[in-house]
Amino acid sequence: MSDSIRSLRSYNPVVKTLAPVPAMIVVALSRDLWTPAAIGAIALLMLLIGGGPRGRTLFWTLAGPPLLVVLLTVSFGVWTDSARVGHTTALLEIGPFTLWSGALFTGLATGLRVAAVMLLALIAGLTTDGPDLVRSMVAHLRVPYRVGYAGFAAMRFVPRFQRDLEIIRLAHRVRGVDGARGPVATLRRYGGYAVPLLAGAMRHGDRVSLAMEARGFGAHRTRTERRRVPLRPRDAVLAAWLLAVCFVPHLSGALG
Amino acid sequence: MKTFTTRYLMACAAIGAATGVLLIPANFVGFAVSATFPLIYAAMAGV
User: For the whole model, what pTM was predicted?
Assistant: First the structure.
């Protein structure tokens, strides 16, 4: 893990997860274009400078938000109730359908809000290791370590259950269970996968809990960790910066 | 927290992880549908 102050990976995972929440609330409650656009741009810059994304991650970090904004703008342009935006300019008329400028504005504002919240969430999402987040929650948020370790276990279960699902899927296919196509058949097929997968998952959870208790897990109130995730002054600076970002909307008034 | 046995916690973890694995395709479909056809997404969320 890089310990450079510029790398977001070197900051405390709990701070990275919780500090953007006030900015997310400000973005979600905003109704103008400036607030989500400015906060989203700041979050994107932080990700590009501090996250160091590469390859496909870099491509989707840069291309994903604009694509989402365009998609939501067009989608809202089509779906917004015309009675609510009928007083705005009609941009296009195709038969009974009219595209109103007010509908596009609503879509653009919504798209920017969704993209900004997504980018703020990615600050932690792209730069945090799951087990480190759990360790930090146990150490700094006083989450009971037994609950934290259930979170650890859940992360470790995922690849195993993906393999189990693949085996169940192949077994159903060999037996020719519901080979039909279409969304309804797919739903029914997945319903058929759910029962054996969940039954196997609970059996595995049982075995893991027995193995953990056999090794003395949960015998003591506290537990020491081999790997520590410290809280440092740089985390306070990051939290203060992300709180300061909440005041960006007021800048538009100050700048006139 | 003592009332939650390890078996109970691991069962919760297993159910959560298995449900998540099952719903991975639904998340992709849901994201695309919510952005393009919000009314269909409402029905999907209801189901």
Answer: 0.83
